[in-house]
Amino acid sequence: MEKKTTTKQGKSADKGSDSPSPRTGSRSRKAPKARHRGTKAAALKSANLEALEKPQDARYGLLIAQPQLEALPGDFATFDWNDDYRGHALVRVIRHGIDYGVFEKMAEPMPFEQEAWATILNTTTRTLDRYKKEHRSFKSQQTERIIEIKQLYQKGVDVFGDKDNFDAWLETENLSLGRIRPVSLLDTSVGIHMVKDELGRIEHGILA
C-alpha cells in the first residue's frame, strides 16, 4: 500500500513540474509578435500622414514644394484655376494662412476700408488691428475669403475696363441683385458667386 501511495504522489509531482513549462514558453513566443505588429502599424500611420502633408501633382505625381507666400499675391490677377500645379499650391497657401503684410499687398488696389474688410471677413476692426500689430496670419477660412475677393475684383476691373467704373458699380444698387449694392454681398461665398454671375452677364451683354 505504501508503494502505491508513493507512486501516485510521484506521478502527481511529476505532472505538476511538467505542466507550467509549455505554458510559459507559449507566452514568451507570442509577446514579440504583438510588439512587432504595433511598431509596423505605427510606422505605416506615420508614412501615411507624411504623404498627406506632401500633396502631389495630379498629372505627373511630382511632389509640390512649399509655396512662397509673399510671391503668390502678384500671380492672383492671372491665376489659372484649371492649372493642377498652381491649384495645389494655392490650397496649401489657404491652409497655411496669409499674414497681414501679404493681405495689405493684396488689398492695396481695392477700395475697401478697414471696416468693410472687417465685415467681409466676419471679424472686427480691433481684431484686424491686432493682426497687423502682432504680424499674425489669418485663419484658413478668412484667407480663402480674401483670395475670393481678390479674384472677384480683378474680374470686375477686366469686365468694366476701368478700376473707377467697377468701384462705382460695387456701390450702386443693382436691379438684378434685388436692388442692393453688390458690395453688401461680399461677406458670404454665395453672395460672391451672385456678384460673379452678374459680372458674367454684363460681360456677355446681358443687362437687366
Automatic annotation (TrEMBL):
Location of region: Disordered: 1-47
One Pfam family matching this protein: Xre-like-HTH
GO molecular function: DNA binding
InterPro entries in UniProt: Antitox_Xre, Xre-like_HTH, Xre/MbcA/ParS-like_toxin-bd
Composition bias, Basic residues: 26-39
Residues of the Antitoxin Xre-like helix-turn-helix domain: 90-148
NCBIfam families: TAS_TIGR02293
Protein name in UniProt: Uncharacterized protein
Organism: Flagellimonas olearia
